[in-house]
Design brief:
Blueprint: E1 6-8, E2 20-22, H1 25-45, H2 55-68, E3 72-73, E4 85-89, E5 92-94, E6 108-117, E7 120-129, H3 135-153, H4 161-174, E8 178-179, E9 185-187, E10 194-198, H5 214-221, E11 230-233, E12 236-238, E13 244-246, E14 253-255, E15 261-263, E16 266-270, E17 275-277
Parallel strand pairs: 1-2
Antiparallel strand pairs: 3-6, 4-6, 5-14, 6-7, 8-12, 9-10, 11-16, 12-15, 13-14, 16-17
Helix pairs in contact: 1-2, 3-4
The structure holds 2-amino-4-trifluoromethylsulfanyl-butyric acid (MF3) and cobalt (II) ion (CO) (2 copies).
C-alpha cells in the first residue's frame, strides 16, 4: 500500500492522473537514457547558437539528432505543436516557436527539448548566449541556473513539494528578480506532463501571529516528496515583473513588461537519500550561456 494521493506506477494507467506515480528502479534506468540523449542534444547545439542562425535551423538539428540516436521528439505533434524544441529568445518566457527568425549578437535564448527513449521522457532546457551578451543578461542566466539547482537541492524524502519553490524564490528575491507563476514544473515518466505541479515560487503568508502547528506547517509546504517520484524543476525568472502574456500564436509566452526572461530545466527523480538528475550534460556544459566555455 502506498500513501494516499500516490500510486504504484506499475499499477497506474498510462496517462496523466491526479495520483502521483511512484516509480521503481526500471524507471530510473529508462529516465537516465532519455535524459542523457536530451542533454547530449543540448550539448550538440552549443556551437550552432551564434549570430545569424535561425531558430528553425536549431530545431532541425535537434530533431535529426534525436532521431539519429534512437529517440523520438516528444514535442513534435504534442497538442498540435509542430517542432522538436522550443526556442525562447530574450523576453520570451517559454514555448517560443522555432522559425525563420535569426538570432543576433547579444540575444539570450532558452532551448527546451524532450527526447523519448523506450517511452521515457527526458525533458530539459538551458540558456545560451548569442555572441557577446551584456552583463545584466549574463547575471540573469547565472542566477536562474542557481535557482534551479537550489530548488533541486531541496529535494529529498521527508521534504515537501513547497520547499522547492521556497528555495527558488528565496534566491531570486536576493537579486530582485521575479519568479514566473504562470508555468510550473511537472511530474513526468512515461507521461510527458503528469501530476504533481511543481511551483517555483513561494508566497509568504502575511502577518502570522504565532508559530504554525506542525500539521498546518506541513499543509502549507505541500505534498511530501517520496522516493520514486519523477518530475521536472524548470524555473522561469524575469528581470522585471512576473506577469506573462500569451501571443496570438497560442504558444509563445512573453513577459508583459517585455523584460528579459531566463529558464533552466532538469528532469529528476527522488531517491532514498535525495535526488538524481537525469539530464546533466555529459560533457559538463551545464551553463552554455558562458559562451560554451563550460560551467562557471
Ligand atoms: N518542454 C516543455 C516543458 O518543459 C513543454 C513544451 S510543450 C510544447 O514542459 F508543445 F510546446 F513543445
Ligand atoms: Co518540462
Ligand atoms: Co521542457
Amino acid at each position: 500500500m502506498v500513501q494516499a494521493g500516490f500510486i504504484d506506477a506499475a499499477e497506474a494507467p498510462p496517462r496523466a492522473t491526479n495520483e502521483i506515480k511512484l516509480y521503481g528502479a526500471d524507471a530510473f534506468v529508462g529516465m537516465r537514457k532519455a535524459g542523457r540523449i536530451s542533454a547530449e542534444c543540448l550539448d550538440m547545439l552549443i556551437p550552432y547558437v551564434v549570430p545569424g542562425v535561425s531558430t528553425a535551423k536549431l530545431d532541425n538539428l535537434a530533431r535529426e539528432y534525436l532521431l539519429d540516436h534512437g529517440s523520438t521528439p516528444a514535442c513534435l505533434f504534442y497538442k498540435g505543436y509542430r517542432h522538436t524544441v522550443c526556442t525562447s529568445v530574450n523576453h520570451v518566457v517559454c514555448h517560443g516557436i522555432p522559425g525563420p527568425k535569426v538570432l543576433k549578437d547579444g540575444d539570450i535564448v532558452n532551448i527546451d527539448v524532450t527526447g523519448i527513449v523506450d517511452g521515457w521522457h527526458g525533458d530539459t532546457s538551458r540558456m545560451y548566449s548569442v555572441g557577446e551578451v551584456k552583463r545584466k543578461g549574463l547575471r540573469l542566466m547565472d542566477v536562474t541556473y542557481e535557482c534551479m539547482m537550489k530548488g533541486i537541492a531541496a529535494v529529498k524524502p521527508g521534504a515537501r513539494v513547497g520547499d522547492i519553490g521556497a528555495a527558488i524564490q528565496a534566491h531570486a528575491d536576493q537579486f530582485d528578480y521575479a519568479v514566473v507563476e504562470a508555468f510550473c514544473g511537472h511530474g513526468l515518466g512515461r507521461v510527458f506532463h503528469d501530476a504533481p505541479n511543481i511551483l517555483h515560487f513561494h508566497k509568504k503568508r502575511p502577518g502570522r501571529l504565532r508559530d504554525a502547528e506542525p500539521e498546518e506547517d506541513a499543509r502549507e509546504r505541500g505534498l511530501p516528496l517520496l522516493p520514486g517520484m519523477l518530475f521536472t524543476i524548470e524555473p522561469m525568472i524575469n528581470l522585471g515583473k512576473a506577469d506573462v502574456a500569451l501571443l496570438s500564436d497560442g504558444w509563445t509566452a512573453v513577459t508583459r513588461d517585455r523584460s528579459l526572461s531566463a529558464q533552466y530545466e532538469h528532469a529528476i527523480g527522488v531517491t532514498e537519500t535525495g535526488y538524481e538528475i537525469f539530464t546533466q550534460s555529459p560533457t559538463g556544459q551545464h551553463t552554455p550561456h558562458t559562451s560554451g566555455a563550460g560551467a562557471s
